[in-house]
Amino acid sequence: MTELDTLHATREAYDAIAPTYAQLFHDPLRDRPLERAHLSAFAELVRTNGDGKVADLGCGPGDLTAHLHGLGLDVFGVDASPVMIELARDAHPGLRFEVGSMAALDIEDGALSGVLSRWSVIHTPPQDLPAILAEIARVLAPGGHLLIDFPATDGPHHETQAYDHAVATAYRWSPDRLAELLREHGLAESARLVIEPKPTDQRQFQEVQLLAHKA
Fold first, then answer.
1. Which one-letter DSSP state was computed for residue 1?
2. Which candidate among 29, 94, 121, 146 keeps its CA 20 to 30 Å from the CA of 178?
3. What order of strands is seen across the sheet that includes strand 112-118?
4. Which of 48, 89, 86 is nearest to 66 (CA)?
5. What counts of helices (H) and strands (E) characterise the chain?
6. Phi, psi (degrees; rounded to nearest 5) at 125
């Protein structure tokens, strides 16, 4: 399956479940104090660097976009699913949301002070991820910040691992390998948050949040 085929399949799958998704995950930061703290740190760093525009890539129904707006950021959302974007616009009419692909962003070079990518690369086949990281690096201004979240592999000897997902095939990453890919695209790791799964979680994966900046 080509990169374009993968994007189309994922888009159609999320279009089909978008209303259910928005209802189930309408409060994504509930009971997640560590993630709230990391997002607050990300917002403070962006504001310190000039308080420019921020893109929430893979924004879904827009709840995290709205959260970042509440933290004082000039933020807009981008998602490949037109239905998700419609839901986001309905739920948050004061914010900007656009349909778009992370591999070909309709954003000028160096236009952003920050990028949030929360679980939005999990359906990207490993061979296609460098193109997305290159796009993120392209649209970030010097000194801009990226916060990217993803599930971790079972250990450093696994660079990537595929796993079953209710919507489409998804991938876990070695944190060290993904940090290395970021460096290859001019994005230096600033901090790393690793969240252990709760015993009651369906999937016993570590969640990783990498904070990086563009030199």
1. -
2. 29
3. 96-99, 74-79, 53-57, 112-118, 140-151, 207-214, 187-195
4. 89
5. 6, 9
6. -55, 145
> What are the start-end ranges of the E strands in the chain?
53-57, 74-79, 96-99, 112-118, 140-151, 160-163, 170-173, 187-195, 207-214
DSSP annotation string for 79-91: ES-HHHHHHHHHH
In order of 10, 43, 57, 111, the CA distances from 142 in angstroms are: 32, 16, 19, 10
Cβ contact 80:7 at 8 Å:
yes
Output the pTM of the full model.
Answer: 0.93
Residue 162: beta bridge partners? 171
pLDDT along the chain (215 residues), means of 10: 68 87 88 95 93 94 98 97 97 97 96 97 95 98 97 94 88 97 98 94 93 96
CB-based burial of residue 108 (10 Å sphere; 0-12 exposed, 13-18 middle, 19+ buried)? exposed
